[in-house]
Write a structure and sequence with these properties.
It is a single chain. The protein is an alpha+beta fold. The protein has one domain. It contains 1 helix and 8 strands, in the order αββββββββ. Strand 7 and strand 8 form a beta hairpin. The radius of gyration is 23 Å and the shape is elongated. It starts with a helix and ends with a strand. About 20% of the residues are buried.
Length: about 160
């Protein structure tokens, strides 16, 4: 084989190698963004379910506008989430994919605040350190004419 042919083979191998590495990086970034979008949807659905439970009268299996005791989160990622007992308006839990923290702040100056934090177990930047967290809150009651929803994403890598 001539020198020109060897040079073309080596150049071809380098180009293919770089293309594969770039493709893998793009795939991983896309998977992380999809997970983040999915968790935003989960956070909004979960805080909305908490709001619904809180407002539902106790006679209908709700919190009667004063407690979250008895509320169970929806299945996150298709897997039931084991939630700790509600203690001082706070509960936490996890499954194979997610960790969740739930908090109910009783009426203060007339309004009530429901807060959750969800983080993934898969996307981390070190043992026990999530690469992003989703916070979702809803504030209602008091002088507020409508509930206020707020969802924030804290990304520790981007």
């Amino acid at each position: 084989m001539g020198q020109q042919q060897l040079l073309l083979v080596v150049l071809g191998i380098i180009i293919v190698g770089v293309a594969v590495i770039v493709g893998i990086n793009l795939f991983n970034a896309n998977a992380r963004e999809n997970a983040k979008s999915n968790m935003i949807n989960i956070a909004i659905a979960t805080v909305t379910a908490m709001y619904e439970y809180y407002l539902k009268p106790k006679a209908f299996g709700g919190g009667g506008r004063n407690t979250m005791v008895g509320w169970l989160p929806p299945n996150l990622g298709g897997t039931p989430l084991a939630l700790s007992e509600w203690n001082n308006n706070f509960a936490e839990g996890e499954n194979e994919e997610y960790r969740i923290w739930c908090h109910l702040e009783p009426p203060n100056a007339g309004s009530t605040l429901i807060f959750i934090r969800i983080e993934p177990k898969e996307f981390t930047y070190g043992p026990g350190y999530p690469s992003f967290q989703i916070y979702s809150t809803i504030q209602f009651g008091g002088t507020l004419p409508h509930p206020r929803f707020l969802t924030q994403v804290f990304d520790f890598i981007d």
